[in-house]
Design a protein that fits this description.
Elements: H1 3-64, H2 66-103, H3 111-125, H4 127-159, E1 167-169, H5 171-186, E2 190-196, E3 202-204, H6 206-224, E4 228-237, E5 240-247, H7 254-257, H8 277-287, E6 291-297, E7 301-309
Parallel strand pairs: 2-4
Antiparallel strand pairs: 1-3, 4-5, 5-7, 6-7
Helix pairs in contact: 1-6, 2-3, 2-4, 2-5, 4-5, 5-6, 6-8
Length: about 300
């Protein structure tokens, strides 16, 4: 083969090798792109599942609070209903005074006779008492409806699924909202001691943070059974809000404390816990670039410390 033919053959081999390399690169790129899309789908599916899991655990927590919430709503509804019955009776009695006037022929009847009938009816229905009693019944009824409205609004704050948007929120307000919901769960087993200091806002998702607090409050209640003390303390230090939630309950053994953030691990009896409350709480705090730590001693109590960065 002549020298020009050698160069020509080498040139064509180089072209063919380059085309083959480009095809291999294209195939690899396509394969890699498919893998990336698959991974994005997996991640998206995981995030959706995680959100559903958080929502499911919220509903489970609210399920444990159902009796207390029902009692809390039933009280104001009961006395509001009673007040409305009394108001109806009062108003019907007062209307009797108006009927005397309406039934009278003021042009022809003796005014003194009409006035005597009116005064007699006032005494008969005890009008002075009815007039004095009506405003207080109205005020109490409005107060009862406001209490129900507050409970429903707090339920919305806790049960609302929310979205991935982080907003400015105040930790002390979140704690206050949660305590209003769990107060009936706690009042039979423990006293609540608040040591909340003014703290700047954080960037977060209050609907999810509320889930963390409710879970820790309920856990403290279960740990104490009776004569417990729940101490909730907030303080601002070094660009963070630090929340300490402490109880004087039965505590957690060294063996179990290493597992409490493991999914489905629980020492509670069947029906009392899902084993997901603390793992989900850990995930929520991590999502907020914070951390949650636990210190406990058997028969002394447990303290959960949550650290969240300021906005």
């Amino acid at each position: 083969m002549s020298e020009p033919d050698v160069y020509k053959a080498a040139y064509f081999r180089e072209i063919k090798a380059r085309q083959l390399a480009e095809k291999m690169l294209e195939d690899k790129t396509r394969d890699l792109s498919d893998r990336v899309l698959h991974l994005e789908g997996v991640v998206s599916g995981f995030e959706t599942m995680q959100g559903q899991l958080i929502q499911s655990e919220k509903m489970a927590s609210l399920g444990q609070l159902t009796a207390g919430i029902a009692h809390e709503i039933n009280n104001p509804i009961a006395y509001t209903y009673s007040n409305l019955v009394c108001l109806t009776e009062n108003i019907l009695e007062i209307f009797k005074l108006d009927k005397i006037i309406q039934d009278s022929d003021l042009e022809n009847d003796d005014a003194r006779v009409v006035l005597n009938k009116y005064q007699s009816m006032r005494q008969q229905i005890d009008a002075e008492y009815l007039i004095a009693d009506t405003p207080s019944l109205l005020i109490d009824s409005i107060d009862g409806i406001e209490r129900v409205k507050t409970i429903v609004n707090n339920l919305k704050k806790i049960s609302y699924k929310g979205d991935d948007t982080f907003i400015t929120c105040n930790i002390n307000e979140c704690i206050d909202d949660c305590l209003k919901l769990v107060v009936n769960e706690l009042k039979y087993s423990m006293a609540i001691k608040l040591e909340l200091t003014d703290c700047d806002n954080i960037l977060g998702q209050p609907y999810d943070l509320n889930q963390v607090f409710i879970n820790l409050f309920i856990n403290a209640s279960h740990a104490c059974k009776s004569k417990g003390i729940l101490t909730i303390k907030t303080v601002q230090e070094n660009g963070n809000v630090i929340i300490n939630i402490t109880d004087n309950g039965k505590g957690i053994s060294e063996e179990n404390i290493l597992k409490i953030f493991d999914p489905f691990y629980t020492t509670k009896v069947v029906g009392e816990g899902t084993g997901l409350g603390l793992p989900i709480s850990h995930g929520i705090i991590s999502k907020h670039n914070g951390k949650i730590e636990v210190h406990s001693k058997v028969n002394v109590g447990t303290c959960f410390t949550i650290t969240l960065p300021l906005a």
